[in-house]
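Fold these two proteins, one after the other.
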Amino acid sequence: MNGIYLIIGGNVGNRTDNLEKSKHFIQECIGLIQTHSSIYESEAWGNTNQSSFLNQVLFVKSSLDAKHILKECLLIEKKNGTCSKSKMGRANH
C-alpha cells in the first residue's frame, strides 16, 4: 500500500456536499482515507469572477499506481459533474 495526498475542492453547487461525495468515491475507488485536514475556504485565483472554493487535503492508502489514481480522480469528477472547463486549472465556472 502506498500513502498518497489528494487535495479536493470546488466552487460549484453545494460545495460541502460535493466534498463529501468526493470522499465517498475516493474511498470506494482509490483507497482508505486515513486522515484529512480541516476544510478551508479560499478566494478564486486568476479568474476572480467566480465563487470562493472549499478545499481539503486527504491522506489515502492505496494499492493503485499513480496512473490509475489519476484515472479514478477524473472519473470521480465526472460522477460529481465537476469536470474542468478552465485552462487555469481545475476551476469550474
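Now the second one:
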Amino acid sequence: MYRLLAIRPSPHGNGNDPEQVMEEVARLGSLLFLSPFWRLLGHSPVWMSAISRYLLPVLTKNRADWNELKPLLVWTLYFAAIETKDLTERSQDVSTLAAVMMSMQLQQ
C-alpha cells in the first residue's frame, strides 16, 4: 500500500500510456478511500476535494481500456463523489460513475 501512495502523480494530458492512467487512478482512489480515516484520527494532510477535482481530467484526457479493472474505477469514482463538497463536481462524478456501472451491465 505504501508504494502505491508514494508514487508521484503522473502529469495528465501528455499522452500517458494506459498503465500509467490506471496507476494514477488507483493512487487517487486509495487516497480518497483513506481520507475518512485520516479525518477520524484528526489528521487532514491533503485537501480531498482537490484530489477529486484532479481525477476527472485524468480520466477524460487519457483513455484506458479498463476491462476487468472496471470495479477499481467504480470504487474510485464512488469515493470521489462522496468526498467532494462541490455539488457540480459531485454531479459529474456521479454521472461518470453511472455510465461506468451501466457499461458493466450489472444485474439488480
